[in-house]
Amino acid sequence: MAKTKKHIVMIAAENGALVGGKAGGVADVIRDLPRALAAKGCKVTVVTPSYGFLHTSNPVLAESEVEFPFCDRPEAAQVFTVRAETPTKGVEHVVIENVWIRGNPIYTHDEGYRPFASDASKYAMFCSAVGRLALEPGSPIAGADVIHLHDWHTGTFLVLRDIHPAFEGLKAIRTVYTIHNLGIQGTRPLEGDESSLAAWFPELFLDPATSPRIYGALMDARYRPTCYTPMMAGILLADVVTTVSPSYAEEILRPSDYGAGFWGGEGLDALLRSAAEQGRLHGVLNGIEYPEERKAPRLAFAKLRDALEKSASAWLETQPDHHGHRQTLARLESWKGKKVKVVATAVSRMADQKVRLYLDRGPDGISGFDRVMERVNEAGGVFVFLGEGAIDFVRPFYWAMEHHENFVFLERHDADVADLLYASGHLFLMPSLYEPCGIAQMLAMRDGQPPVVHATGGLRDTVIDNVNGFAFDGANIAEKVEAFGDAVGRALAVFAKKKKAWGEIRTAATEARHGWDDAAKSYLQDVY
Question: Exposed, middle or buried, 237 (CB in 10 Å: 0-12/13-18/19+)?
Fold first, then answer.
């Protein structure tokens, strides 16, 4: 008899294989890891919410329904198997549609004193629906060998598996829980709020068999009044916990020390140390794909400027009142005919984690950004930054354009522009305060652009100082800011004065391999 394929079910909030399914880096993992697992003979089914639109923006191949408990009543959801943008043999994609798990954009940013309220309820319902679907004979995810859950959005699935009678059958299925961003944990009140564990599953609080568990191990006692944290539940209850790089798996075992500029266990380090002692914690480095041909052409500066100007013009046409796009376009127009020796680039979300070392100041009171621009100016270069995110982190970069004529900020999430920057820049900047894995540095390296990185997490695992890029560190934020500027200066000095050494670093960056095949092999051998 032929050996049955191992069936891996991935459950996540995002899926980059679907049109409209990407909001952040998790989507790339959910797109690429299943392909690599399928290439090794696995059957993989990916499940996300439909959010009210993924089942319409992607062709439907099959449709069914699932019933599940939520808010003290039976609920029902539609289940759609949809075709991916680029179908892969052995990989299926399922989205779950219900009026209460809709959202466009995917994530809701609740204002005021109710963080995660809307999303926590949405994903709790989603977890209940997926749990019952996994137990439904003949469903797209029936007969799973492994259920692989991703980030806080899926932590409630493990609570249901642990203590809810309707999900008892899930205990026979091996579960893996991957931490992508430990800093976002989804914490909500344990009870006393419409977005709380008691509101979603009141039957658990009434059952004498389960309530002691809730008020014991599942209660997040870091807060008063007591709370429920899906990220904590995932770490506590999964058979195996993984992070997305070996170094990050070590860093999160230590308490965070913000004064020293160290982001570690984020209040969950004791729980993570326990998981490590039990042999349940693994660090598996994410990967990227290495196509035989470059996705985007390497453009000389004049042609890169033309391409960026064309994109900025198109953005302004769709948003004519966007003052920032107008400012960006004006800067690009002013660069026409400009002679440039070096192009520094960055592609990033605009979040504290990503941009803090630009905005904070060193021991001498000079900001990281001003230090970078001083070095770029001295080298006869320009700095091109593509990013999108919270206004508090976007606004300073528009201000910076007013004071630095060799800098341009493009406020957009645009994959085509990102590809051009990866391919055409000379030096890629990625000074993340912490980085569980990081994908951008690997994409830049793949295209022959050595990066400057803060030596943390996955950046430390992929970039070797003076070998395939440049790394820096420091004992506190001010020292890290100073070291960031120094590393940029050091890299640009090699670029300008040591052509042979630069060529060797660039070649090493291009030849570095961090592929999904290696990640898939680790999951199959060490985790699943």
Answer: buried
CB atoms within 10 A of CB 354: 21
**Contact indicator for 316, 285 with CB cutoff of 8 Å:** no
The contacts of residue 231 (CB under 8 Å, 6+ apart) are: 151, 152, 155, 179, 182, 184, 185, 186, 187, 268
pLDDT tens readout for residues 312-329: 999 999 999 999 999 999
Rounded to whole angstroms, the Cα distance separating 49 from 99 reads 11
Phi, psi torsion values for 299, nearest 5 degrees: -100, 140
The token pair at 346 is: 């960055």
The pLDDT tens digits for 92-129 are 999 999 999 988 789 987 877 788 999 999 999 999 99
- Name the residue type at position 53: F
In order of 323, 447, 472, the CA distances from 285 in angstroms are: 40, 20, 21
Cα separation, 356 vs 359, whole angstroms: 5
Range list of β-strands (E), 199-268:
227-228, 240-243
Q: Which two tokens stand for residue 453?
A: 């990185």
Only one residue has tokens 């070996």, namely 246
Q: Which amino acid is at 107?
A: Y
**pTM score, whole prediction:** 0.93
Sign of CA pseudo-dihedral 438, 439, 442, 448: negative
CB atoms within 10 A of CB 433: 22
Please identify which residue in the block is written with the tokens 């009870």. Answer: 191
Asked if the model's pLDDT at residue 527 lies above 90, the reply is yes
Q: For the segment 278-298, what is each residue's pLDDT rounded down to a tens digit? A: 999 999 999 999 988 877 889
Q: How far apart are CA 144 and CA 140, in angstroms?
A: 9
Q: How far apart are CA 500 and CA 484, in angstroms?
A: 24
Query: What is the CB neighbour count within 10 angstroms for residue 75?
Result: 18
Task: Give me the helices (H) in 319-414, please.
Answer: 323-334, 352-359, 368-378, 391-403
Q: Is residue 294 a contact partner of residue 423, using CB atoms and an 8 Å limit?
A: yes
CA–CA distance from 138 to each of 9, 65, 141, 143, 171 (Å)?
A: 14, 12, 8, 9, 19
Prior bond of 225 cis (ω within 30°): yes
| Alpha carbons 518 and 366: distance in angstroms, whole number | 42
Q: Cα–Cα distance between 400 and 73 in angstroms, integer?
A: 54
Contact 196, 188 (CB under 8 A): yes
